[in-house]
Input
Amino acid sequence: MQKLGLTQSLQQKLSPQQIQFIKLLQVPTAELEGRIEEELEENPALEEGKEESDELEDEYQEEERKEEEDLDVDDYLRDDDISGYKMQGDGDNDEEKDMPIAMHSTLNERLIDQLGYLKLDDRQYTIGKQLLGSIESDGYIRRDLEAIINDLAFSQNIETDIDEVEEILRKIQNFDPPGIAARDLQECLLLQLERKERNTSSIDVVVSKKIIEECFEEFTKKHYSKIMKKLDLEDEDYIKDAIDYIRKLNPKPGGSSAGLARTQYLIPDFILTNDNGKLELALNSRNAPELKVSRSYSEMLKAYDKSDKTDKKLKDTVSFVKQKLDSAKWFIDAIKQRQHTLLNTMNAILEYQYEYFQEGDESKLRPMILKDIAEIIHMDISTVSRVANSKSIQTDFGIFPLKYFFSEGIATDSGEDVSSREVKNELKRAIEGEDKKKPLSDDKLEKILKGKGYNIARRTVAKYREQLNIPVARLRKEM
Output
């Protein structure tokens, strides 16, 4: 038997403006330019350039108030057909899906952009540009540094030395793509492995780096047995996995070889510089485009007030114009709100991890979860997640995704919390220093960590060991 009844429920529905903001917030800088170009093409009421005086905005708002009685908002703004909100990924809630990056500039232009993010004086910037100009199409600098020093003296009237040039070169080698500005293949591979080592403690990265640092000649000649002997390794799987890992690195970061996929560059959303201990944060200029509402479209709406309001065709035209003006204004507001939220979130992270950002010392990273930052900026955890999952920051010690700075906490004997990353580093050091004939069990590792003041359970030791890709004690045993 069927029954009819009334039920009452509360539902929260996002406004078109909120939808616009949320989608723009999770777009990384590399894709923002393409998104703005798409909006400019779709909406003729949106233009590039500085916003004009507020007089035009006041006129538009006044016209909007006058027309509320004549035009029904439902006639031109419907939830199922909102012009200006069709972004890449509409209808797909998978936020982790990789999206293509539209690349329009050359490698050299991208590198010069990144050089501008460094806090260099005019002299250092000129040296940096000279180095960038010496990078060949495959991403290498093969010219001798002494020759570059001579070029600087003759063409730029700058007297410098190897130490100064190498110091600036090291900064450039932190640019994207990883491995850029290397002087040979060994340095190119090492630069990529060092970048990966900053982001992961994988055993493959550790072994791969040792092979390239200490056994590069044997590696190039495929003398794997010699590598095992030189590194005192008896498990062939370590060598095999490391070799496979190295083969996945990019030997030509400039991407000039035929058939090689075009390189995608990580463009940082934030630029952090350290001026004698004073941290200065800036938003990448690509996140702050100059957009304005079209004056001609606003004037069309103003002219409507003086026209025959009974003309149906004219009314339909005005509905279209008003829709485009609303869409343009909402898009500009969403871009501004995006800028504010990005800076607000990053400033909170910067303040929370202040000691780490001074020197880049990983041991200084404090335990930090999304909730910590959400409470500081008084925003929802999902908002912080959208920022952290798709944004990155350039520092003096490399480019890092924001999610790198988040980690759980472990209590110590002193009552303080330390980052789980710090505990993992201690665990890794303990295993590296163990007697390989009698490797440490998880129980013994737990006691060692507790002896250093970390209150940690054996199951947590096992979890961290697995996350570090370190096998159990019996598999680490060597004869």
